[in-house]
Automatic annotation (TrEMBL):
Domain called Lipoyl-binding: residue spans: 22-104
Family per similarity comment: Belongs to the GcvH family.
Name recorded for this polypeptide: Glycine cleavage system H protein
BP GO annotations: glycine decarboxylation via glycine cleavage system; protein lipoylation
One Pfam family linked to the record: GCV_H
Cross-referenced InterPro entries: 2-oxoA_DH_lipoyl-BS, Biotin_lipoyl, GCV_H, GCV_H/Fam206, GCV_H_sub, Single_hybrid_motif
Length: 127
């Protein structure tokens, strides 16, 4: 089980797990629940650059199409092909097997993201 308190979050409902200079990114269970059954995931290519706050992918569900925003500026070093092949992983295990991309980032950039308490307060305000 992923320690949700060890993750960082964005107001756009992405989570970030940092290991050295690599950040693993996914969408939160809150976002996955709001989207409904995810049926398609479009992710940036490996070695492409992404810019914090900019759209870098798309997540389609039976209810709607959502945009994936880059939580940090960096270079894509991996994409989760399993989630591309089986988008339901985003719903069934958003903090584990449903991760989306890995970015090489500057660790200092992570400090501007939300901690778990701030993210929970944000989502409770939306409820």
């Amino acid at each position: 089980m992923t320690d949700l308190n060890a993750l960082k979050y964005t107001a756009e409902h992405e989570w970030v797990a940092v290991d050295g200079d690599v950040a693993t990114v996914g969408i939160t269970d809150y976002a996955a629940d709001k989207l409904g059954d995810v049926v398609f995931v479009d992710l940036p290519g490996i070695d492409s650059g992404v810019t914090a706050g900019q759209v870098c992918g798309e997540i389609e569900s039976t209810k709607s199409v959502g945009e994936l925003y880059a939580p940090l500026t960096g270079d894509v070093v991996a994409v989760n092909e399993a989630a591309v092949d089986d988008p339901s992983l985003v719903n069934s295990d958003p903090f584990g097997d449903g991760w989306l991309v890995k970015l090489r980032v500057s660790a200092a950039d992570v400090e501007g993201l939300l901690d778990r308490a701030a993210y929970v307060a944000l989502t409770e305000a939306d409820a």
